[in-house]
Design a protein that fits this description.
Elements: H1 13-16, H2 22-36, H3 40-52, H4 58-73, H5 79-97, H6 106-125, H7 129-148, H8 157-173, H9 178-181, H10 189-197, H11 205-222, H12 226-239, H13 244-258, H14 263-275, H15 281-297
Helix pairs in contact: 2-3, 3-4, 4-5, 4-6, 5-6, 6-7, 7-8, 8-10, 8-11, 11-12, 12-13, 13-14, 13-15, 14-15
Length: 299
């Protein structure tokens, strides 16, 4: 569950780039809409539009990180995607380190913990635990302001909530992380849940969608309350019916609730894989494989 520590700096576009043209903000919003809808070709078009602005700014870097992360979790796990993701993370962190008073600026704290969180998740995915520990230690340097000032800065609520979940889970499941967690702010799962619940009516697409996603994962994995997990999963699928990751989690929850009585749902998922011409062959093979593994694990 610690790999859920993720908070994208795209949500603070208005704050960190308030003097940028409105078209930039529109590109960010449209980019997120098509990315969550699993239209990676259109998402790449928006990335190209942002590149044409030549921002050399963390907003640009974080959009690239978000894009490559979604490519990776959809099955495009070739080295180029990992390397690009790491490179944009390092560009974000280098930019932040060049700023004065990096620990005093709330937007900078947000961007830093966003980039570090992605780096942590990538290292955990690649089973590079030493590198992941280094990220975890750096995250601790920024976490105090995120956790303590979410009432002052509403966009801190999402990373603060995920922080609470991640640290609580890490303490339970990853003994190797306890040394790093000693100096972290105190975490509480109930506080994290309340913060996410306050976000799900947000007009910001990223804050709303990610809060729904992490509430689903919270009830599925931390509480094992599959009925409530399904409630949030259904909302995600209703909003983004072509997002196969959200549909996969919906199927996993249904499997927990109803066992092997899922032939129709499995057939529908397979049809969506086959008939989605927006997916690459690698992505289709990825989802076919994880669906097979999910069903076999519950036989």
């Amino acid at each position: 569950m610690l790999v859920l520590l993720m908070c994208s700096g795209l949500a603070v576009a208005d704050e960190v780039a308030s003097d940028s043209p409105l078209s930039q903000q529109e590109v960010v919003s449209d980019f997120l809409q098509v990315l969550y809808a699993y239209d990676f070709t259109k998402a790449q078009d928006y990335i190209s539009q942002l590149d044409e602005l030549q921002l050399d700014h963390p907003l640009d870097y974080l959009m690239h990180i978000h894009y490559h992360w979604w490519m990776i979790v959809s099955g495009e796990q070739e080295p180029d995607n990992f390397n690009s993701c790491f490179n944009y993370i390092d560009s974000t962190l280098n930019y932040i380190q060049s700023l004065p008073d990096e620990f005093q600026n709330p937007e900078v704290n947000f961007m830093a913990i966003s980039a570090l969180s992605y780096k942590f998740r990538l290292n955990m995915m690649r089973e590079s635990q030493v590198a992941a520990l280094r990220c975890l230690h750096k995250i601790g340097s920024y976490s105090q302001v995120i956790v303590n000032e979410h009432d002052k800065y509403p966009y801190f609520k999402l990373p603060a909530a995920i922080y609470h979940f991640a640290v609580c889970s890490a303490a339970e499941k990853y003994p190797f992380a306890n040394v790093c967690l000693i100096m972290f702010p105190e975490a509480d799962k109930e506080t994290g849940k309340q913060l996410l619940e306050s976000n799900i009516k947000s007009e910001d697409i990223l804050i709303r969608t990610e809060s729904l996603y992490f509430l689903m994962r919270y009830y599925l994995e931390l509480e094992e309350n599959y009925s409530d997990a399904l409630k949030y999963s259904n909302v995600l699928v209703q909003c983004f019916p072509d997002n196969l990751l959200y549909r996969f989690f919906q199927l996993r929850i249904l499997n927990k609730l109803y066992g092997r009585q899922l032939q129709e749902s499995v057939a529908d998922f397979n049809n969506r894989i086959r008939n989605n011409n927006k997916l690459s062959d690698k992505q289709k093979k990825h989802f076919t494989l994880i669906l097979k593994q999910e069903m076999e694990a519950n036989l």
